[in-house]
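ok here's Regulatory protein RecX, seq below lol
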Amino acid sequence: METIVKITREKMQFYLIWLSSGEKLRVSEDILVKYRLLKGQEVSEQLIAEIKKAGSYDVGLQMALNYLSYQLRTKKEIRVYLKEKEIEKQDQEKIIKQLQELQLLDDYLYSESYVRTMMKTSDKGPVQIGQQLKQKGIEEEAVQQGLALYTSEEQLAIASKAAEKGMRRYRDKSFKDATQKTKMYLIQRGFSKDIADQAMAELAFEKDEDQELEQLKKQGDRLWARHQNLDAGKRKLKIRQSLYQKGFDYDLISQFISEKELEDDEE
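and the structure came out like this:
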């Protein structure tokens, strides 16, 4: 036999029952009333076991309901949460089943809600969103149901905005390099190659020859200084290869190198 030393109240209408052995039992108010638990009461090992069994489910359900009150959750998230709260595994599954019956836990509904939110708040494509849903424990069928909301039209509209940002982000690159990097960015964000191609084709950006020459000179000057210790032939070859790999036109590169050679001759 053990004795209840004290009973203290916790958050969410939970109570801690302190036993004479030092063990503590977390129970809901319903369990407290059901078993008429009071300070100074003697309790048998059998009753303690019964309270633990009943308390695990009851407390876990209340915790899960509170966890769900902030936002939608997946079955996996609820399961992980209950495990962290040390709720018995068999009770975890009973709680999840109960929440589903109450229509408070639905991975299909979660998938649709998540896709809508990501469409409004991010520039991610369907592939990346689908991967995120799967990481949250959503099954393939539910993932696809959610992604069905992300139409080709919506994808193109979001990808086009992302492409505009990408081209501005890479404005210090050659036009060709900026275009390639922006397209790769779209694919990495989860858009298909077809959508990425369409988005790039609809861009209002055009190649600005003056800006292209300005960027070439900036990068070319750095390369010219970096390779100043090479002999003339190797220096030109190295710089020509580097600038060409960065997407600059061959004729512009040749023009730049000729101008640098003239500058060196004048010095």
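fwiw Strands lie at 2-9, 14-19, 24-28, 42-43. kinda neat tbh
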